[in-house]
Queue: 2 jobs
Job 1
Amino acid sequence: MKEEMKLKDKVAIVTGGSRGIGRAVVAELARQGARVYFTFHRNAEAAAETEKATGARKLLCPQPDAETIVKTAEAVVAEAGRIDILVNNAGVHADQFLMLMPESEWTKVIDTNLNGAFRWAKAVTRPMLSAGGGAIINVASVSALVGVAGQTNYSASKGAILAFTRSLAAELGGKGIRVNAVAPGFIETDMTAVLPRDIKRRNLERILLKRFGSAAEVASVVAFLASDESAYIVGQTIVVDGGLTAAAL
Ligand code: NAP
């Protein structure tokens, strides 16, 4: 089989595919032959751009809306007949020191990043079981692995995603559904564009490769975890951070 068609005939859902890492994942899965659906929340213009650039289908579906998530998954099954791949990518951050953090900002980040991933994983499990297998890839962060001041809400959501990944893998591995995670470091997207220049400079100094990553560099790892190339990898996290967390000094 030609290398780029490794996901031929697979049906994929990518949450938060309108921009950034999600858009790159949509593009890579489509390039490798998958039929791709992606969700977005507010940015209809960016979603239309992703759709145009990749041939994937956009679906307006907010992470906090459990009912719409179930209906969206059902609509994809009705149209495409199956769901083989779920990429839980949609995420937000709302950085603030804990003592100043309103509870609403804590709840928003946990609900979008963690509860949303739970809702989506639950919604695709039955169709994947019916299809006899599948792959779920959860997008975490290096903030799940090391402490980052100002990110207690974000790192709690991402640390929980890694624990969720392992336990769900234990539940579903025996049924042919592989659950894995990626933990990106500092990737150039809208999410990191807003960070203060000082924080960017300090991160750059710590990254062994001395550059930020691209969304495409995360997408290729997600596509690997979605494909049979990773058939014997279950419940694991692949860190994609240019060495940010590899060295202490
Ligand atoms: P981004 O550029 O800000 O894009 C976020 C995506 O998530 C957009 O498609 C957005 O849709 C969608 N989204 C946000 N809130 C949503 C909601 N409530 N319901 C549905 N969709 C929603 O972010 P990114 O940098 O690509 O990050 C993608 C993932 O990678 C996130 O989980 C993030 O935590 C993780 N990550 C990023 C980095 C990094 O350095 N960039 C590092 C580690 C981990 P709209 O366009 O409609 O707003």
Job 2
Amino acid sequence: MGGSEIKPKRLQNRDMNPELTVDDNRFRRRFERFNEIGATERDGVDRPSLSDTNKEARDTLVEWFADAGLAVTVDEMGNVFGRTDGTVPNEPPVLFGSHVDSQYNGGRFDGVIGVLGALEIIETLNEENVQTQRPLEVVAWSNEEGVRFQPDMLGSGVYTGTFDRGYAYDRTDKDGHRFGDELDRIGYKGDAPAAGDPHCYFELHVEQGPYLDENECSVGVVEGVYGFSWLNARFEGTADHAGPSPMHLRHDAMVATANVVTGVRRLTAATGTDLVGTVGSIDVSPNSINVIPETVEFTIDLRSYDNAVVDEAVSQVRDEIRWAADRENVAWELEEIMRVDADPFDTDCIETVARAAETVGAPSMRMVSGAGHDANYLNDVCPTSMIFVPSVDGVSHTEDEYTAWKDVVVGTNVLLQAVCEKANEE
Ligand code: HGY
Ligand code: MN
Ligand code: MN
């Protein structure tokens, strides 16, 4: 018979198989090549959502997904999927992935290891001629970071029904560009509906906090994600000359803002809870050295694993803002632009990750995530859990973000075991 005989694919059995491991060199080459896209001088990446570098990253993923034999789909939110057939093709797929948009001058690992790790798993199963019962679907979600277009996790948010498409398309960046128009501009406004019915979802991600590193654990078995609130605040005072204007006659929006910034730090310290609060971005107008600030717009990010703590913090911040406005006699506005509830992940998926870490022989610890992830939303529609790998010194969202490659490989092998087990369960 001409040509090489096509060997039937071996079905990966239900039990975990520690001999099945990814190819760390192939994975590392791909990771380095991918992070040449939008590379910064200080070894970070600059691939903000729907930017030209984000488009280049997406184009590369589509090419690599197709090369790996995946059926590629881009949906109406620009989420990029790659799907294999299972031996039972109509079964809901095991979905796993993360995001490739980055912070401005962000880290090389955040999101990327979850998407490229997922692709490496597909390559490994192809190479080992292994087919799972359920289809496997890898995904790169759009706009996870929320730095250019708030709120964050827009792609997974529409996919899970948290946001409607029109709301997402109308979100604008600081220059007034609409999300929907930018998606069109880069050619990623797909036809497929942003919706799905996955059997379960896993996400491999860097911890972005210090605990795995401190405890010398290579794997975090993630049991849930903090809830959080993103607030937009605005003070409006009176612009005037910085010289002749007497201090007692001023209505200085910056002074009111400064009181709230220190107030956020004070209230997070006072609660004795896991509450964290950040004033991360600020816009001053007219922003001139010798003009009393007329308006200041700033953001407040409040998080806790206890939803009641976030609710209470939002109410206290509102009181701080009202007090600061009264004291400086300026006008104020406060808008909550996003509220995500903390909720625990699926017990069975958590235990699958724990078993997978054991199978791989990786020291692991259970934890919750202070960072938000697309898994927050997937957890509303299907059983979900996450796998963390250590961030050296807990640093993330900066160019100094770093994870030892051996830990990335261990985390990916844990994901491989978890995905295969779930893809073969009845
Ligand atoms: O804000 C977050 O935690 C995530 O990085 N978007
Ligand atoms: Mn991330
Ligand atoms: Mn991030």
